Amino acid sequence: MEVLYDRQGPIADVQATIMTIGTYDGIHHGHRKIVSEVVRRARQCRYASVVVSFDRHPLSVLRPEMAPLRLTSLDQKIELIESLGVDYLYLLTFDQERVSQSARDFVYDVVIDGVKAKEVFVGSNFHFGHKRQGDVEFLSEIGREEGFAVFGVGLSMVSEVLKNTPPDADQPITSTLIRRMITSADLSSASALLHRYHSLRGVVVGGDQRGFGELGYPTANLDIPSQLAVPLDGVYAGTLRPLNSSRRYLAAISIGTRPTFYPSGGPRLIESFVLDFNGDLYGQEVEVGFVEYLRPQIAYESIEELIAQIGKDVRDVRMKIEVEQS
Fold first, then answer.
1. Contact in structure between 301 and 259 (CB atoms under 8 Å)
2. Does residue 162 lie in a domain region?
3. Above 50 in pLDDT, residue 213?
4. Which CATH number belongs to the domain containing residue 246 in this structure?
5. Active-site residue list
6. Please, are residues 11 and 48 in contact by the beta-carbon 8 Å criterion?
7. Alpha-carbon span 64 to 62, nearest angstrom
8. Contact 205, 221 (CB under 8 A)
9. Contact 68, 19 (CB under 8 A)
10. What are 175-189's pLDDT values in tens digits?
11. In which domain, by residue range, is 67 found?
């Protein structure tokens, strides 16, 4: 897949494309359905397939105080879209110039001149342009004038993926819903809707070194961008993968303020004890995946009690992930 930015100009060397456009944070089940249809149609028509998305969440420019936490970093989004067989990812620079662009100018700039679309697939609730003036019907009107077809795709419902979930079954699958699941530690539902474990990427940084000496369980402390969605404080069964490797290791992941050592509250950390690993991860970029919530953060009365609990957590990780992978 080739990644292009709109500031580089239109996609060259293609006569026509089948495209979709959206924020596509998380690349969840509903996103995958639309993108997969774009890829299928492009191959059928022998055109290039294109996903048009943004280099940042639009609300981070429009209303920064309301911008949601992201389910994926830009690098993760690129990799997930590529895994679906897309030919081009066309990233729009979302800035004040883009904010003030009219819906009609947006269509001519991006859909017609930028990617040379012959067919456009978008969610039925898609809006675009200055003050969200454009919608599927407006896009279809221009399509009839300029010779491209528009397909408004109905939103995927939770019931398509999750069974026996009355509270959520009648809701559409949205990034907002998945964020809520993650921050409430409903990782099973979130993983099903994402078709993968929710994961975070960051650089391993130094900590207070208690894990090496006092506890006997050295941890990799993850420094992540503040805009990413972090699960509820607690201990998780999960995985860790150095980004320079294809191997994933089992990990016991702790999120929180370490109340045993900081009763009044310390800095919030994401710490991973990596099972069956003896190397040095400091300074490396890694990805941690959250498989299952094990327990809340607890302030223990003694170090010995905490060490015993960590030992149990490690055993639980082996059991939970073996069950998950079997």
1. no
2. no
3. no
4. 2.40.30.30
5. 271
6. yes
7. 6
8. yes
9. no
10. 999 999 999 999 999
11. 2-155
